[in-house]
Amino acid sequence: MKDLLHPISLVVATLGFLCLLRDVLTRRRDPASTALAAVFLLSGLSFLFSITPMWNYLDRVLGTVNLSVPLAQGCVVALLACQQVVLTYWGSPPEVARQQSRRWLGAGLAVIAGLLVLFALLTPSAPHPINFTLYYAHDDWYAAYLTLYVTAYTVGELFLARACWRLASRSTRGSVRLGLRIVALGATVTLGYSAVRIGDVIAGAFDTSLAAWEDFAWTCGDIGAMLTLVGWLVPTISDQAQSVQYRIKQYSSYYGLRPLWLVFYSQAPEIELPIDRVDPAQRRRFRRISIRLYRRAVEIRDGRFVIRQYLDAAVREASEAHHRARGLHGQELSAAVTADQILAGIAARAEGARPAPDQLTEFADSERQTSRPMDDIDALLDVARHLPRQPARAPHLERVSG
């Protein structure tokens, strides 16, 4: 059973680690992200070490039979400690989290050291990748080894389920609440594995066997582990999906602002920021879509400033009357009027015809409130959507790549 379920769990753990790897590289000072990535890595290693072909390979290469047992179970103990580190940093102030994390990691290292010592006292005469526990069930040293491991495993899963459920009830983010409850469910399912292993210890003392329950134990262990990994992934995938969505919006906005930018650039090419003068070491940074979008917005604002002195109040009044008659109102009305003002202002600048000082006015959307980073971009996009479909062409198209 384990050779059927472990590869599936290994794939889930590997995918989770790869999803988190980018967060670890970009958030190097975030202990929770690092600990969560370690959970997936250690989980994957525990499954890998337990698969029969890898078990036999390690026996042959390392020269010690059944060494996969302490390696795999040591990874499990370590990932249980890392899971507590994640929860501690998510639910406690940094100073408290650091102290509690050291305790959890210290306890995990102590258990791993105890497992290695007890394993060294065994006398493994032959490799047993299948039914290892049943083979050693009557060995006193293995009974002590299994008791230590199952105790640490059970305590860790109980603490995990309890902490996840409590933290989920306090979280304000839906993805975190859902993910933590799935983790709690997975931890609860794994207790079926613990129950069988505790039964193995008791059965060994009475010279009996729980061989019929082996498949149940591995099923509970693997399904519980997969649920736990999926639960940890839910907030991460949600965050990354939002990041991708935001990046797509940035690209869409960048190209959506191009017609408005071309209107200004065709008459005032001086608005283009001289990026060619930027230090070559910094030029790569300016290729990021966030910087390019910010540049485009700044250049459009500069263009608006250039024609501001050509804004005629009569143009604004006529435009408002026209668009009100079309049924526009609110922000859509102000955006449509602003688009008309821009075109009229550019034409007036080209002719050198400034309105009288008492006829000067502001852009219709000048009082629009923008609080979030993309609000200002959205305001400019609203104006761009009201421009003619065939805007003025730039005099030097090779410079319009942005």
List the quaternary state of the chains: single chain
**What is the helical fraction, as a range of percent?**
over 70%
Distance between the termini: 58 Å
Biggest pleated-sheet summary: none
How many extended strands? 0
Number of helices: 15
Large-scale geometry:
elongated
Structural class: mainly alpha
- Uncertain segments are 391-402
Strand content: under 5%
Radius of gyration: 32 Å
The average pLDDT score comes to 84
SSE sequence, one letter per element? HHHHHHHHHHHHHHH
Overview of the structural elements:
The chain has about 400 residues and is mainly alpha-helical. Helices cover about 75% and strands about 0% of the residues. α1 runs antiparallel to α2 (about 30-50), α7 (about 140-170) packs antiparallel against α8 and α10 crosses α12. The radius of gyration is 32 Å and the shape is elongated. The model is unreliable at about 390-400 (pLDDT under 50).
Topology:
Blueprint (H helix, E strand, L loop, with lengths): L1 H25 L4 H20 L1 H11 L5 H24 L2 H27 L11 H5 L3 H31 L3 H32 L8 H43 L1 H10 L12 H4 L5 H19 L5 H13 L4 H22 L23 H10 L18
Helix pairs in contact: 1-2, 1-9, 2-4, 4-5, 4-7, 5-7, 7-8, 8-9, 9-12, 10-12, 13-14, 14-15
